[in-house]
Amino acid sequence: KVPISLIMNKASRQVSLEKALAVFSAEKVNIASFLLANGDGTIKGIELGLNSFELLKPERDTLIHANHYVLERYREKDIFLKFVPDSPLRYERLQELLANDYGKVTPQHVMKYFSDNKNYPKGICAHVDPESDLPPYATVASVIMIPQQKVVYIAAGKPCENDYIRYSLIQ
Fold it and tell me: Which helix (H) or strand (E) holds 35?
């Protein structure tokens, strides 16, 4: 099988979302999920597994994901959950935050969501859990992309401890 990093690289060089999705769907990848967007405001997701794929569609103009499968058909084979069992908790928390601000979400709202420490240390902004038997993990960076504006906001490190820096992708 082709390493997922090479598939991601090939998909990122495509000229349309449809072509990028075709790159992912053509490969026999066992475990992966991706959210893709373009400058005209279209966003799509794809979950890959069991040598198949399924597209994710936005709900109420919003598409979110975490570190686990959201589609039922892949959950029984989801190997991520044993390493990040709190992923569904973070996913549900993000859904809650987005629902509270539906229709008025700005990049600043998303920065606040990604800095959220409710359920610490297992918040959206994850911190090492000293009581966990799992290998330690934590949020190491946060990226917010605004494709229509060709802007990216990046917090190097945990966003609850580091500011987002705005980068323009226009030369």
Answer: strand 31-37
Instruction: Kindly write down the DSSP assignment for every residue of 111-167, as one continuous string.
Output: HHHHT--TTTTBSSSB---TT-SSPP----EEEEEEGGGTEEEEEES-TTTS--EEE
3-state SS assignment for residue 158: coil
Beta bridge partners of residue 145, listed in sequence order: 152
Per the structure block, which two tokens stand in for 140? 């190491």
Per-residue pLDDT tens, the chain, 171 aa: give them.
788 889 899 999 999 999 999 998 887 666 788 898 888 878 889 998 878 889 998 888 888 999 899 988 888 888 888 888 899 999 999 999 999 999 999 999 999 999 999 999 999 999 999 999 988 999 999 999 888 888 999 999 999 999 999 999 887
Prediction pTM value: 0.86
Helix (H, G, I), strand (E, B) or coil at 137: coil
- Cα(36)–Cα(113) distance, rounded to whole angstroms? 20
